[in-house]
Amino acid sequence: MTTHRAADALLRAWRGPREPVDGSWERMSPWLPGVYAVLALTGRALVSTPSEVSDAELDAWGTDGWGHAHDPRIMARLAGPDGWVDVLDAVLIAEGTGAGAPPGLIERPDLSGHPRVQHAWPIRSGIRIFGYADDEATVLTLGQGIGGLTEMSFQVEPDRRGQGHGTALAQAARRLTPRGEPVVAAVSPANVPSLRALLAAGFEPVGSVQIYRPGRPLGNPA
């Protein structure tokens, strides 16, 4: 199976061998039709764009591997006036344990209308939804996301926050991923509780990502 360039770059940033830290950027293909992204690692950047955007334009806009690929002005140009740009997320990776779902966590396809699931549908594929029988607000999703890697997201019911449930869900994502395979999480750095939960569950930061869909407004995803 061919590994997508984004997946290769993330896995090398995570486990090595590390790529040169030289401020360079390169073009990558989208991992889903119509879904584009800017992916930044230490001293490097990868950018997917519609075919009409040239390398010369990206250079002229100031794209580089020192963080400027995430410049809001570049993202706005890439998405266009009617496009959608997701928040800037930190990317973290952990190794799957293959231990299976923890007690109480079950598949909940009936939660497909949950805002966290609705946010995942357009930017990932093969979404599986998990939750608890007595909870309509707590949810965990697993699907194929950045670079085709397994990607998780979660949300905890407000009254249950601050009790370790976020860490438990992040650990559950690792349990539901085959042993030794990577599972990715993307989280806004400002979402400190979720970031702490991921770190506590063994996820390690490797880079940042910003996803966009040009000319395809998605409303206001949660």
Structure in words:
By secondary structure, the protein is of the alpha+beta class. Helices cover 23% and strands 30% of the residues. The chain has 6 helices and 11 strands. It has helices at residues 5-15, 55-60, 72-79, 115-120, 165-175, 192-200, and strands at residues 24-27, 36-41, 44-47, 84-85, 89-95, 105-107, 125-132, 135-144, 150-155, 182-187, 204-213. Strands 1, 2, 3, 4, 5, 6, 7, 8, 9, 10 and 11 form an 11-stranded mixed β-sheet that branches. The protein is globular, with a radius of gyration of 17 Å.
Distance between the termini: 34 Å
Summing up helix and strand content along with how strands pair, one would put the structural category as: alpha+beta
Number of strands: 11
Q: So how many helices?
A: 6
Which spans have pLDDT < 50 for at least 5 consecutive residues? 216-222
What can be said about the biggest beta sheet?
11 strands, mixed
Helix and strand run? HEEEHHEEEHEEEHEHE
What number is the mean pLDDT?
94
| Strand portion | 25-35%
Helical percent range? 10-25%
Question: What spatial form do the alpha-carbon principal axes imply?
Answer: globular
CA radius of gyration: 17 Å
